[in-house]
Amino acid sequence: MIRPDDLAHCREVIRTGSLSFHAASKLLPANVRDPALALYAFCRLADDEVDEGNNKTAAVLRLRDRLDLAYAGTPLDAPEDRAFAAIIAEYDMPRALPDALLEGLAWDAQERRYATLSDVRAYSARVASAVGAMMCVLMRVRCADTLARACDLGVAMQLTNIARDVGEDARAGRIYLPTDWLAGHGMDADAFLADPHPTPQVRAMTKALLREADHLYRRSEAGISGLPRQARLGIWAARLIYAGIGDQVTRQGYDSIGHRAHTSRAQKLVWIGQAGVRALGAGVMPRSALIYADPLPEVTFLVDAARQGQPARRRMTSVLNTLADLSAREMSHGNGGQSA
């Protein structure tokens, strides 16, 4: 399905660029691990294009074009693109799922701020839960309840990333803390970005994000038993390793400005051992009623898309509107006008 040389390239991208996923991926069966590595390599490419480029708007629009080519069966001549096109063909990947990721990256290009926790969850749904839903498709899982729990895990992981990167994001001029939380603590977002410090107020908001992540990690566990038996160990490991990052932030007193949380190889090995115990237990313990919890409102569109599938050409209206706005900004900038 995926060319061996393209797969080798994708493995190397993940080995050097995503240590946590690389560790967890080793525990997946080959029939899931190989397409998952290709999927993550394409998503990593997309994220890096937007995050590291000088013109984020142009990067998003290039990614839109690359997705169009991949879904047309004529991918760009690059390993990640060829591999992703193979995944589309083999697994009938609904277009709405990578489109959701693209929309989240477009929001980054627009330098959006998020007023409420629900808004932050909506962003997390796009940049993280969309990948979780695509992982379910790679496992041939289309059960709505299992998909909802996979999306819980995606949001939890992204909230953990946000909590870990408060300082790094602030120094890059980005903020993902809900602005109504800042206002509730008497803080101004621009003033914080100009001079970020781990004040008690910022630590309290970081703690609140991790509390929400922990709630969603617990909910996500119920869905793991709905995955293929051979894949459960790897997903359990990913859940525990990412939650461990949040635990490290907690041990630092919720200061992710003066320090950036890191986890060691030894810690990962412990969590992988714990994942093995839990994966074995999933086959004998009664199924948790949490499997039937309603999906978060912010991820329902992902569950529907992955469950039902969509024709390749169908696009979400919100994505089209966001991309149209970016195109207008890019055209204005190219004509000598000022970007908004």
From TrEMBL:
Keywords: Transferase. It comes from the Bacteria. InterPro entries: Isoprenoid_synthase_dom_sf, Squ/phyt_synthse, Squalene/phytoene_synthase_CS, Trans_IPPS_bact-type, Trans_IPPS_HH. The keyword DNA repair does not apply. CDD domains: Trans_IPPS_HH. Signal peptide: none annotated. PANTHER family: BIFUNCTIONAL LYCOPENE CYCLASE/PHYTOENE SYNTHASE. This is Phytoene/squalene synthase family protein.
